[in-house]
Design a protein that fits this description.
Elements: E1 2-10, E2 25-34, E3 37-40, E4 49-58, H1 61-74, H2 82-94, E5 109-119, E6 122-131
Antiparallel strand pairs: 1-2, 2-4, 3-4, 4-6, 5-6
Bound molecules: zinc ion.
Zinc ion binds near residues 99, 101, 106, 108 and 132.
């Protein structure tokens, strides 16, 4: 099963994670993700550990071209390679969580993505889930 996603690059980091949508983002490209599968089960010892899942993010040639165009527009200073910039954009797109509680959080889930480019148009992503307590 494939799921369509829109990859976006976060341009500013003025807000805490739960309000990250209020920062400025650039649309990078569309992509599809494979069905995710569990790579680490939730830990019994640590209540905040919700386990990890992995999935692939795959771009078409046209989507890769769109991503490169966005990269040149928003990351044009050459400080970061296209691969590292794409890894980070995918991490930013798949990380997050609805929690905006800086204090007294109720235990909302947060997601931390770690992306690596595995082929020219394919990225392997591990998403770790944790709960705020
Ligand atoms: Zn919360």
């Amino acid at each position: 099963m494939k799921t369509a996603i829109s990859i976006e690059s976060r341009l500013t980091t003025r807000y805490v994670q739960g309000y990250a949508h209020l920062d400025d983002w650039a649309q990078v490209c569309n992509a599809r993700t494979s069905k995710s599968y569990v790579v680490a089960a939730p830990s019994d010892e640590e209540a905040s550990d919700g386990g990890s899942t992995a999935r692939l993010v795959v771009l078409t040639p046209a989507e890769l071209q769109a991503a490169r165009t966005t990269y040149r527009r928003v990351a044009g200073n050459g400080q970061v390679s296209f691969t590292n910039w794409m890894n980070r954009a995918i991490e930013e797109t798949l990380s997050g969580g609805g929690c905006g509680h800086e204090y007294d959080c109720c235990g909302c889930a947060s997601y931390y993505a770690d992306a690596h480019r595995t082929k020219p148009r394919e990225f392997s992503v591990v998403v770790r889930r944790s709960y705020n307590y």
